[in-house]
Design goal:
Strand content: 25-35%
Helix content: 10-25%
Number of helices: 12
Shape: globular
Number of strands: 36
Structural class: alpha+beta
Distance between the termini: 90 Å
Length: 644
């Protein structure tokens, strides 16, 4: 009898617990709701119950369905606030209430690491953070997650008001975009930020859409062999990897930092230099580096400054066996450290660095002049020969990186947000698809269509960032996966209500995450102001229009030139290459003539094709009257060219 009573009680408790009103985590205090649309709000409650929803003075009633789901749509609101949202069950005392709500424009900002890149990692971060008092800008950063099936709620996330405390972890691109739009349009701005580094477009697209394409069908079906246990094991492997990164193993932080340690068997590497300079291939793990330096007499008895330059990954620094910093990321605001006089020795001193080699990155990147010791008056370069050793700590466990798999991020980070009312989408991604640019021509528009269809707000504005300039320059014209990916992005402008910010002039040859996110956000905002807010602004740089051939010259015509073409630096035009029917490209002479650029080369008497800024990191300088860069292009469609 007691067991029966207990069972009934447990069942009753379960029913009561499930009967509570719940809303997805995308709703909360301080959120921004989209103006000028019927505002959707949804959740769960007792099946068949009557829900009373109130936003400001607007009240809407709805009955839950047989599964307990409900949705209301409030009438259109103008920008303003603050408002309170109250959700209650008719005749019951319990309710959910969210306060401090603003009505304005909500943008969903997604993509990989350059969208995820934090404000605290940008150039001039200290100043940007200090002045970030914009109470009418709010962010919700969606917790990174991955699932095999579409979820009804995000893992976690909370709306935060923009201030110097909160802004540090916001997407820098989205923040600088929001700041300009807010200041220019004088409306509250909300940013919903689902982003995750190193992820391809397929991970952000629904299963149904991916199954519709022969490009992605087989790979998507392969997900059916996965179970949540695969994710669990992979997560455990990641935990172990990070444990190794953050905690020196095998007492190495005591052994390899000692001034008495014999490193004569270690290999030599020139610093600054990235992982490819080590000659160890696609290595992943912890690497130790050491350098012994003879200090000048003038450094004796003084506090010194050590600038470790530009580490490419997580690192720890030691001086004469003393830990100076531990597990600092490359995105830190400074890599300059004080070395107390008490540990500085006359003559020989030992510097040790423990650095992670992950994701094809590691080492210390140029310039060499940023790698030095100083006493306040003079500097001593630390560039040159260092010694290094690998495989002295446990290997990183194998990680399958399931976040790269088709649809897993859509399921966990996009689907739960639908149909939260938004103004449009911001997107910065493409690096993870660079090896399959021709497929990206179809996959990127597929995702855009997928999201728009599911949001049910028509052809919502979809504004995206084109890949920047990155990697080393090239002496001669050649093929480039990054150029092909940029081309695929440009081709996506054929989709309705899309806009692209070209940033071919703000990248960093040695950093896939350039820190000038201010300009990226600014250019995205220019596109939005012209296309979405109907402002009379110059929003983008010259775009290839057509060309004609006259003898040995090719005349290129552009749109978006505004008051004319010019070069950014006032020098001759650079970045053009020209080829004949042999498909051998040569650097070309290019001259601005009115609204055209005339291209030629003494080496090509009968030209048939021209390319501009067609490289990973092109040297190019063509801009319009507003200083916005010309978009990279080619007039040919060759998949291979002739090279020496």
């Amino acid at each position: 009898m007691k067991k029966n009573i207990l069972s009934v009680a447990l069942c009753l408790f379960a029913v009561l617990a499930s009967a509570q009103i719940t809303l997805p985590k995308v709703f909360g205090d301080s959120m921004v709701l989209q103006r000028n649309i019927r505002i959707p709000v949804w959740g769960n409650a007792v099946p068949g119950s009557q829900i009373v929803a109130q936003l400001g003075n607007s009240i809407v009633n709805v009955k839950t369905d047989k599964t307990g789901k409900w949705m209301v749509r409030f009438p259109k609101f103008k920008a303003g606030g603050p408002y309170t949202l109250t959700i209650a069950e008719a005749g019951k005392q319990t309710k959910i209430q969210y306060k401090g709500i603003l009505i304005g424009d909500v943008w969903l900002a997604s993509g990989q690491s350059n969208m995820d890149f934090h404000v605290q990692q940008t150039q001039d971060a200290k100043n940007e953070i200090a002045k970030a008092n914009y109470p009418q800008i709010r962010f919700i950063v969606v917790a990174q997650d991955m699932k095999l099936t579409p979820q009804n709620d995000i893992l976690s996330g909370k709306w935060k008001v923009c201030n110097p405390t909160n802004v540090k972890d916001f997407s820098a691109v989205a923040y600088f975009f929001a700041r300009k739009i807010h200041m220019d349009q004088n409306v509250p701005i909300g940013i919903v930020q689902p982003s995750r580094g190193g992820t391809p477009v397929e991970a952000w697209t629904s299963r149904e859409k991916l199954l519709s394409s022969p490009i992605t069908r087989a790979r998507t079906l392969s997900n059916d062999t996965l179970t949540p246990n695969h994710f669990v094991q992979d997560s455990l492997n990641w935990v172990r990897m990070w444990d190794i990164v953050y905690h020196p193993q095998n007492n190495t932080d005591k052994i390899f930092t000692s001034t008495d340690y014999d490193d004569s068997s270690w290999r030599i590497v020139e610093m600054p230099g990235s992982i490819k300079n080590f000659g160890i291939g696609a290595y992943e793990g912890m690497v130790w580096m050491r350098k012994k330096v003879i200090l000048p007499v003038s450094f004796s008895g003084k506090d010194l400054i050590l600038n470790i330059g530009h580490p490419e990954m997580n690192y720890s620094l030691y001086f004469n066996g003393v830990e100076i910093c531990k597990t600092v990321w490359n995105g830190a605001q400074t890599h300059t450290y004080s070395i107390p006089a008490g540990i500085v020795k006359k003559g020989e001193n030992t510097i040790a660095v423990r650095i992670a080699m992950i994701w094809g990155n590691g080492g210390i990147t140029p310039p060499a002049e940023d790698l030095y010791l100083a006493d306040g008056k003079s500097k001593m370069s630390l560039a040159g020969k260092w010694l290094y050793q690998k495989d002295v700590e446990p290997s990183f466990p194998i990680r399958n990186n399931y976040q790269y798999y088709p649809t897993v991020l859509y399921n966990s980070m996009i689907h739960p947000l639908i149909p939260f009312g938004i103004k449009g989408f911001l997107w910065y991604q493409g690096e993870a698809n660079d090896s399959a640019a021709y497929n990206y021509r179809k996959l990127f528009p597929m995702m855009i269509s997928d999201w728009r269809t599911r949001w049910g707000q028509g052809d919502l504005p979809f504004l995206f960032v084109q890949l920047t300039n990155y990697k080393k320059g090239q002496a001669e014209p050649m093929e480039s996966e990054w150029a092909e990916l940029r081309e695929a992005q440009t081709m996506t402008l054929s989709q309705p209500n899309t806009g692209m910010a070209c940033i071919i002039d703000v990248g960093d040859a040695d950093n896939i995450h350039p820190t000038n996110k201010q300009e990226v956000g600014h250019r995205l905002a220019l596109i939005a102001e012209k296309q979405v807010y109907q402002q009379n602004v110059i929003a983008s740089g010259p775009m290839f229009k057509n060309f004609s051939i006259n003898g040995g010259e090719v005349s290129i015509r552009f749109s978006n030139i505004e008051n004319g073409l010019k070069t950014r630096d006032g020098k001759d035009v650079t970045g053009f290459a020209i080829a004949g029917s042999d498909k051998h490209f040569y650097w070309a002479k290019a001259t601005i003539k009115g609204d055209q650029v005339v291209v030629s080369s003494d080496k090509v008497t009968n030209p048939v094709a021209v390319r501009y800024a067609w490289a990973d990191n092109p040297v190019c300088n063509l801009v319009n009257s507003e200083g916005l860069p010309a978009v990279p292009f080619r007039t040919d469609s060759w998949k291979g060219i002739t090279q020496k």
